[in-house]
Amino acid sequence: MQKLFEEYKMCITPLTPIHIGSGEELMPGEYFVFQDNGRYKLYRIDMGYLASKLTDKSRDNLCNMIAKDPIKWVDDAARKDSLVELIRKYAWFYAVVNNDVADGVRERWGKNDSMLAIKTLQRTGQDPIIPGSSIKGAIRTALLWSLVKKPLELPETLLQFNDKSHHAKVTSWERRDVLKSQSSEIQDDLLRHLKIADCKARGLVSRILVTDHVGMSDKRGKQSAIIDYRECFPGELQLGRNYNLETSLVIASGHPHYLYGRVRITSQLILKACRDFYLKVLEADKDYWEKQGRNDILGICERIEQVFKELPEDKGALIKLGWGGGMDSISLNLAKRDGKHPPGRINPQFRYNPKTRRLLGGYPPGWAVLKLEKV
Description:
Elements: E1 6-14, E2 21-26, E3 31-36, E4 39-44, H1 47-52, H2 56-68, H3 73-77, H4 81-90, E5 93-97, H5 99-108, E6 118-121, E7 123-124, E8 127-130, H6 132-147, H7 166-178, E9 194-196, E10 199-200, E11 207-214, E12 229-232, H8 236-239, E13 245-251, H9 256-259, H10 267-292, H11 295-309, E14 316-320, H12 327-330, E15 357-360, E16 367-374
Parallel strand pairs: 5-11, 6-12
Antiparallel strand pairs: 1-13, 1-16, 2-6, 3-4, 4-5, 7-8, 8-10, 9-13, 11-12, 11-15, 14-16
Helix pairs in contact: 6-10, 10-11
């Protein structure tokens, strides 16, 4: 009898910091940074909940402090030992703060010119998550790259960017011509048969890291000094130890559309696509950092490559998740042939070599190991 589903345990091992944003930015007063046992920690607070734990007098004092100076009050609050103790006790969650971030926060804390927003991870309750949709999107890009004919020749209909229906045309082409779905409609999308649950990091202590926007210049042509702090899943290469995040992957192998499809998603197809595609992405990263003369980052990429080489082909692959991956990891750019681009423009038929990269805490972001085990 045909099974309706095939279920796999998916294991993700972060190698470098991963940031998948919630769209929320914390501002001073929504968080505080204190030193605990030699390490700096960020405490995320809910002011309403914290106020409910204060005595009437303490609550009035806090409200008066905020009303008196809506900016500097956070500096005054951080100097009151009794309030600091309550912030630690009733914080929603805490995260470890790298020293360079802590120094920047302390330097500008309670000042008018503060640029202290911190972009947070998505959460369910207190625990951060890697959304299943993010993992599925990364797998989809790898599948598209593996199935498309290379070098990629885009149809003329996809070269008219001023067409309002351009996005719909690209999606239809991906479904019908690349993924070999029965039609270009969403209900026939090949990946409708793939279900991935959110990956919850129970008990994980996240990190607050500073972002480097390498190659991004200001109006004077100098490296831009952008203040950009992000909450991240720490990576094995950063921590010096690994940890695993587990979730489930389900393939609806008994669905009629799956049975009659021209391409069928299998665990081996997913792993092979990810192995082939993300190795190409890693090679492009290595080439960039070598040309930049950044042997430190090149060395990190080589360590990632060594992890890849030690993975059994039928069990694991590299994958790149979340923010900062660049166009190579979220598009079919690497499937295109080399060619010349007009001054100030990009010819979409040819491969484009991005001039910028992102680093999180000094590491290329988003790299992880993906493993699948049948349940």
